[in-house]
Amino acid sequence: MRGHRMKSFLSFMFTFLSLGTVMTTLIWYMLDSNCEEPFQPPPQKKHAPKLSEIFKPCKEIIDKVHQRYNQTWKKNEKNYLKFRTNLRVACNGFDNAIVTQNNTPIGSNIVYSGEKRTLQVNKDLFDLFLKENPFSNKQWDTCSVVGNGGILFDSGCGKMIDSADFVIRCNLPPLENGYEKDVGSKTSLATANPSIIFQKYGALTGRRLPFVESLHKYGNSLLLLPAFSFGRNTAMCQRAAYTIEDFESPIRPVFSNAQYLHSLDQFWCSEGLKERRLSTGFIMVSMALELCENVHLYGFWPFSNHPYDLYTLTNHYYDDVPVKTFFHAMPAEFEHLLQLHTEGVLRLHLGDCKSDKK
Questions:
Q1: Is 306 a catalytic residue?
Q2: CATH architecture label of 63-185+258-348
Q3: For the chain, which terminus, N or C, has the lower number of CB atoms within 10 Å?
Q4: The whole model's pTM is what?
Q5: What are the backbone dihedrals phi and psi of residue 169, each rounded to the nearest 5 degrees, phi first?
Q6: Domain extents in the chain
Q7: Catalytic pick among 328, 336, 341, 349
């Protein structure tokens, strides 16, 4: 009988400890995921939840953001020039952000930005490179860098975004079917993640017309392809460039420069941002800070509750597909963007443009 009770007691303790381990792991996961919530359908109405329904660390983070953000913004020319100079000296995006025939001649070796692997440039690859750098000796007055965050949904920011001289969009986002009022339609440069080409267009190994048709909304903008991030992306990005050429699409494919991405990683590491890989949006902000006198950011809010009304946001303004946090630490990047905003280096837009909130 005593042995039976001892076995029961040990069994109970094992179950209790196991449950405790699971709960501890769950709590740490919730804290570490920086206010990310499980999948929820897009909100039909903007009703603010009760404060008790919001994960407490999330509310604390939003309150801290308010303390730093809710001040009248004014550009600090001294801070802007100092930061842009440091960025240009370290990375020189004007000359190096995009691969050209001038900075990457035949026979040169490209070191991939995402892996320890090199590729020697042959004539076929060289012929796809731009002859002249589209950014050399150019400086735009205003630039809009548009992230895809759910905060843009029903924001009414479209006209403000399109009013910029140069508009950068990330990962081929949708601009039609009513989204124009929130995100605009003007595009000067768009990026294309290879995973999108692979998933939506079968890596362009079959029918290619749907891919070309999907690019019509971006007009004659630059299409930035990360051909040299990983070796597996090179052939697919080449196919994308050939497809655009074969169908005589007005969009202009260009390749991001792995050397520039290397230097950008090192620069932001020196600034205290230590993560596995910079996000596309963050790379575009960095590029814009060299190319533009006044940089405005939209859709860069990484948390799952709206910063003002606290209602639940979808991950993107067009869907709720979760971000791959294994590669990108979005809240860490946001911290640096918020710091640049408070220093008057760039302007971070949160809230609704139509109501002229900060």
A1: no
A2: Alpha-Beta Complex (3.90)
A3: N
A4: 0.84
A5: -125, 150
A6: 63-185+258-348
A7: 328
